[in-house]
Description:
The complex is a heterotrimer.
Chain A: H1 2-23, H2 27-47, H3 51-75, H4 91-111, H5 125-134, H6 138-159
Chain B: H1 7-26, H2 30-53, E1 59-68, E2 71-79, H3 81-104, H4 111-130, H5 134-152, H6 159-190, H7 195-204, E3 212-215, E4 218-221, H8 222-237, H9 246-249, H10 255-264, H11 266-276, H12 278-282, H13 288-309, H14 314-334, H15 338-366, H16 377-380, H17 382-396, H18 402-417, H19 419-444, H20 462-466, H21 486-501, H22 517-521, H23 525-530, H24 539-561, H25 567-573, H26 575-582, H27 587-658, H28 666-687
Helix pairs in contact in B: 1-2, 1-4, 2-3, 2-4, 3-4, 3-10, 3-15, 3-21, 4-5, 5-6, 6-8, 8-11, 8-13, 10-15, 11-14, 11-15, 13-14, 13-19, 14-15, 14-18, 14-19, 15-17, 15-18, 15-21, 17-19, 17-21, 18-19, 18-24, 19-24
Chain C: H1 4-24, H2 28-52, H3 59-89
Helix pairs in contact in C: 1-2, 2-3
Amino acid sequence: MTEAAAFYILTGTVLGAALVVVLSRNIVHAAVSLIPVLLGVAGYYVLLGAEFVAAIQILIYAGAITVLILFVILLTEGATGLRVRQRNEQVPLGIIGSGALVFLLITLLTRAPWPPAATPLPTYNPGAVGQSFLTAYVLAFEVTSLVIVACLVGAIVIARREE
Amino acid sequence: MASLAWLEVLFPLAAYGVLILRGRALGERAPLFAIGAMVLSTAVAVGVLAEQIAGARPFSWRTIWAVGGDRVITAGFTVDPLSATMAAMVTVVATSIFVYSVGYMRGDPYYARFFAFLSLFCAGMLTTVLANSFLVLLVGWEIIGLCSYLLIGFYFRRRSANMAQMKAFLTTRVGDTLMLIGIMALFSKFGTVDYHAIFEALAHSDTIEPASVVLAGLPVPLATLVALLIFGGAVGKSGQVPLHVWLPDAMEGPTPVSALIHAATMVAAGVYLVARTYPLFFYTADRAALGVVAWIGGITALLAALMALAQDDIKRILAYSTISQLGFMMAGLGVLGYTAGFFHLLTHAFFKALLFLGAGSVIHAVRTNNIKEMGGLRTRMPVTFWTFLVGMLALAGIFPFAGFWSKDEILLEAMAHNPPLYWLLMAVSFLTAFYMTRLVAYTFFGSYRGPAHPEPDPWLPEDYRRAGIPHQVHGTHPHVPHESPPIMTVPLVFLAAGSLLVGFIGAPGTGPGGGSWLHHFVEFEAFREAGIEPAPFSWAGALPGLGVAVAGVLAAWLIYGVKVVHSTQLRAFAPWFDAFLRNRMYIDALYGWVFVRGGLMFAQLLRAFDTYVVDGIVNAVGYLLVLIARLDRLVDTYVVDGIVNLVGLFTRWLGSVLRYVQTGRAYNYILVAAVGVVLIVVWTLWRL
Amino acid sequence: MIGLAHYLVASALLFAIGLFGVLTRRNAVAILMGIELMLNAANVNFVAFTKYVSPELVRGHVAALVIITLAACEAAVGLALVISAYRHLETVHVDEINLMRW
C-alpha cells in the first residue's frame, strides 16, 4: 500500500513538474522545475529497487546537468525574455503528435504480454552493476568512457571564445 | 581451178589489210597493191570462167557454221555459170576502174585510204557473188553496204557528203532489214540457210504454199511474202522505187566510186540476188512475186527516166539512168527473162562504168558538173568524146552496140509474157535515148560555155583547197579544157571495146539451136520443165525497140543539137511538170517530211517527256523529301525538344515547390520526424 | 499492486510531455530540457523492465547508467553549441535560426 501511495505521489510530482518545465513562460522556472522531475524519477528508481541508479541519477542528473542548464541560461541571457513568446507555431501539431504517440505507447505496451521475471532482482545493486559492466558489457563501458572524453573535448572546443 | 575461187576474195582483202595499216607510208605506191591484188583476182576469175565454159561441172564447197538441234547454218561458195560470169565481169571492170583511179585520185591526201576501201569493196562484192548460203550473202552484203557508205563520204569534211552517206546507209538499211526478216523466215521454215537445200525443198514440195498470212486484211501466201521480203533487200541496194532516193545523192563520192559501186557492181548486186534466188520467186503462187518484181522494175525505170530529163548535173543524169536501167533489169527478170535480165546487167556494167569514167574525165577538165556550162568538148577531148559516144549509143540501145542486144531481149520477153509492161519499157527506151542525147549535145557539142578561168574541182572539199592541193591531173591550165592523160583514157577505150563486144555473147545465133550463147550458158533449169522457152529473136520483134531508140535520139538532137525548138520554150509549155521532174517528183521531200522530220519531232517529244515528266517526277520526289525533312525538323524542334524541355521545366517546377520543405528550422524537422514515427507505427499496426 | 504497467504508463506520459516540449518551445535550452525529460522517461522504462521482466545481469540498470552518462555528455555538447550559437547569432530562439533554409 505504501508502495502505491509512494508511486502515485512520485508520479504526480514528476508529471506536474514536467508540465511546468514545458509550459512555463519563465525559462528559469522551467529549469528549476526540472529538479523535482529528476528527483521524482530517482524516487522511481528506488521504488524499483535500483538504488545505485537512483544515486547516480541524483548525482549526475539533478546535480550536474541542472546546474549546467542554469549556467547556460544565464550565459545566454534567456532570463531577460520574460515577455517573450516561448511557444512556437507548431503547438497544434505538437499536441496531436504527442497525443498520438502516448496513446500508441500506452496501448501497445500495456497490451503486450510481458513475461514475468524469472529471478528476483539482486539486492546489492552496485555489485551486480559492476559485474555486468566488467564482464558482459565491458565494451559499452569502455566506449562510453571514450564518448565522455570526446564530448569533453568537443564541448570545450565548441564553446570557447575565439581569440 | 574452181576450188580456188575463194582466192578472188582473198587478194583484195589482203590488199585492204595492207593499205589500211600501212597505206600512208606507201604514198604513191599504194595503188600497186590494190591493182596487183585485182589483177590476180581477175586471173582467177577468168580462169574459173574459162573452166566453166569448157564444160566443167559446177563446184560447191560448204562447211557447217553452226548447229542447233536439227537446224544447221552452213557457209561456203559455189562456182557455176552464173557466179563465174558475174565474178569475171566484176573483176575486169573493177581492174579498169582501179587503173583509172590512179590518175583521177592522184594528189589526194587520202590516196591510200581510197584504194583500201575499194579493195575491201571488191572483196565484199565477190563474197556476195560466190556465196552459196544466206549467211555468206549477208556478210558480203553488209561489207559492200559499208564500203558504199565510206566511199560516198570519202570527202568527209563536206556536209553534203555526210548527209549523202547517211541517207544511203539508212535507206538501204530499210531494204536490208526486210531481207533479214525474209532470211529468218526461210531459216525458220527450212532449218537451213543453204541455197541449194532451200531451192531443192521449194522445187519438190509445197510446204510453204498452203500457208497464208493476213496482211492488211488480205491473205497473202507465205511464199510470196518471203520472196518479196528478200526482194526488199534488192530494192534497197539496187535503188528501186521507193528506196531509190539515195542513189542520186551518192554522187557525192569520187567519180570512180560512182562508176564501180553505183553503176556496175554494187547496185547490180540486187539484180544478181534476184537471179541467184530465182527459185524463191519462181515457185510462188501464180508466180505473183515475179509479177511484183517486174512492175516495180518497170515503174522504177519510167520514173527515173522522167527525172533524168530535168537534171543538169552530168553525174545526176547518169545516176538516174542507172536507176532506170536497173529497173529494166528487174523487169526483165520479172517477165521470166532470166537470161535477158542478167545479160543486161553485164552489158550495163561496161557501158555505165564507161560513161561515168568519161564524165569524170570531163569534170576534171572543166571543173564543173553542170552540163549547161560545158560544150564544145568534142574537139578538145576527142578520146573522151568518142568513148563516151560509144557508151551513150550502147545505153540507148543502138545496133550493134551491147545495149541493143540486151535491152532488145528484155523487150521481147516482155512482149511475150507481159504486154502492158512491154509498152511501158518502150516508152522508157525512148526517154533513155532522149536524155542521153541531150546530155551529149550539151556536153560535147556547141561552143564552150564555161568560164575563162574555171574554179577548182567543185568536188574538192575546203581543206584540200586550203592545203593548196592542186588537182594535178589538170592542175595548171586554167583556161583551156584538155584531154586527160593516158592512165585515164586507156581504161575508157578498154571499156568502150567491151561495150561493143560483150553484146555478142547474147546475140542470137551464137549458141546451139539458134539461141544466144549466153542463153545456153546461163539459164534457169526449171524453165525447161515448166515449158518456158526464151523469146526467140526476130528482126520484126527487134525493130520497134530500135526504132523507138533512134526516134529518141533524133528528137533530142532536134531540140538540143539543131535547136529546132528551144528547150526553154518546151519547159515553159508545162512548167509545173518541169518543176515536178526537177525536184525528183518530190519523193525525197516527202521522205524528208515524214521520216526525217517525223523522227526528229518524235525525238523532241520524247525529250520533252523526259524533261517534264521523268525529271518532273524526280524533282517532285526531291521536293517531297525536302518537305519531309522540314517537317521532321519541326517535329524535332517542337515535339522532341519540347518533351526534353518539358522534363527540365517540370523538374524545376517540382524543385521550386519542394524547396519550401527546407525551412532551415530544426524544430520543423523534428516535428516531421516525430509525426513520421507515429505514422510508421500506425501503418505497421495496420498491416498486422 | 504496482505493476509494470503503471511504470510504463507513467514513463509514456513523461515521454509525451518531453516530446511536446521539444516540439513546441522557442528557446534552445528549453528544447534540451525537453530532451532530458524524454531520456529520463526511457530510463524509467529500462529500470522497470529490469525489475519485472528480466533482472539477470541487471541489464536495465546498465542501460540506464549508460544513458545517464550519454545524456550528460550530450547536454554538455548541446549547451556548448547553444552558447556558440548565441555568440554568433545573438539569439537562442530556434525559430530565428534558419540560415540553412532554401
